[in-house]
User: Fold this.
Amino acid sequence: MGKRDAFSMRHPGIIGERKFRQYAVLIPMVRISGVTYLVFEKRSGNLRRQPGEICFPGGKLEPGETLQECAVRETVEELKVSPDQIEVLGPGDIYVSPFNLMIHPFIGFIRDYEDTFSTDEVAEIIKIPLSYFFSQSPEKYVSSLVSQPQEDFPYDWIPGGEKYPWVKGTYDILFYRYEGWILWGMTALIAKSAVNLICEYGLNIETDQNF
Assistant:
């Protein structure tokens, strides 16, 4: 294959991707008495970053591992399950944060889960019926993004100088409220995206006897 053919078939990269921190998470489903649940964690209050937040099991990509391997490894560590209990069904859609962060979700299920977790990282396990997300739309609020160059920015190099009309952006902040629990921010966005994929591809394990 020539270079031109190779170029025509290349997978596009993302400009500036190296500046983004790469994380992977598992969106775990479990089946209890015929009902499908999504499993979330409440992060330990002792953690330095985002203590007490509700999230999916996951963490930062380590050198030499794939994104799926990262999601499984972190789930094994945080939920105290064996890799044999986890079946990854496929990838979710990537969440790109405006704050130099990419999260790569994977949708899967955990067999014979007994509510175990690492107390070093997790304070509590939260199980929410999948049907809740089918019937409940999240509440949406909008936050603004404003470009603010550093003090030494060379305004004299650009048209308009300090009065240059910088483009302003926004991003959505979603909230789900379930029995006193609040899912919000990245977790809510990733959950909504995953539930849409579960519906689109018929991944509801209540209807699949293999689970």
The two ends are 44 Å apart (CA to CA). The helical segments are 3-8, 67-79, 130-135, 185-201. The chain has one domain: 17-207. The chain has a mean pLDDT of 93.
